[in-house]
Amino acid sequence: MIEICLCEDNQRTREREVEFLEDFDKKHNVMMQLSTFKTAEELLFFLADHLKEVDIFLLDVYLPDMSGIELAKKIRNMGSDAQIIFITSSKDHVFEAFDTMPLHYITKDTFYSGKLEDALLKAIELRNTRSPQFTYKKRGSDHFVDTNDIYSFEINGRVTIIDTTHGVDDFYGKMQDLEEALPMDSFLRVHRSFIVNMKHIIRFSPTMITLRNGKEIPIGKSYYANSRGAFTDYLNKRGKA
């Protein structure tokens, strides 16, 4: 399933773009889920609960409540790494748009030239090569985080503390559930209470691991030998050892 958000204030243009996307979905069988919005405010309200579910944003630059570029900046600041494609009537803001790391900037006069179709296919290709997502529940809502963005997990009683590039959060969970949900070829249990992402290890000693964010994680005595071997294998597979 590919989740796409389209933000376009002009009804006629929005209907035309929806029709194009529905035809694109049928042609390429991408199983698209499309959500449409007339204003930036509507989209931001939706993203408060669904940010990590969205794979592609299609944004008009000229919106009634804020520019599409300002909207894209807010989306990035919220932590989304989804692909952004601007569809607009003017090239005037193309360089300003670069700050939001868009995949493409398409003018509406070239809408049917194949540029949007090519951009969407590229966005889907990039989405399919992203790291898998880890999902956890908190207060009845699903939360999503790319596994590449996770530094570590700590179990403290019934509470799991997740440390990521976006900050620290906590939820109810068990160590066994983590080990079943995570790709353990890149995650490593080094202590009865800690799992770390090997991608972020910068120092490995007999008693302590240091992560890229500066956090130090203790290594349990009974875990050291297996942890050292697993980390060496991880480095060898990536040609770093």
From TrEMBL:
Domain Response regulatory: 3-123
Gene3D superfamilies: 3.40.50.2300, LytTr DNA-binding domain (2.40.50.1020)
MF-aspect GO terms: DNA binding; phosphorelay response regulator activity
Domain HTH LytTR-type residue range list: 134-233
Keyword NADP: no
InterPro entries reported for this sequence: CheY-like_superfamily, LytR-like, LytTR_DNA-bd_dom, Sig_transdc_resp-reg_receiver
Listed Pfam families: LytTR, Response_reg
Residue positions where 4-aspartylphosphate is found in the record: D60
Protein name: LytTR family two component transcriptional regulator
Swiss-Prot/TrEMBL keywords: Phosphoprotein
Tagged with keyword Phosphoprotein: yes
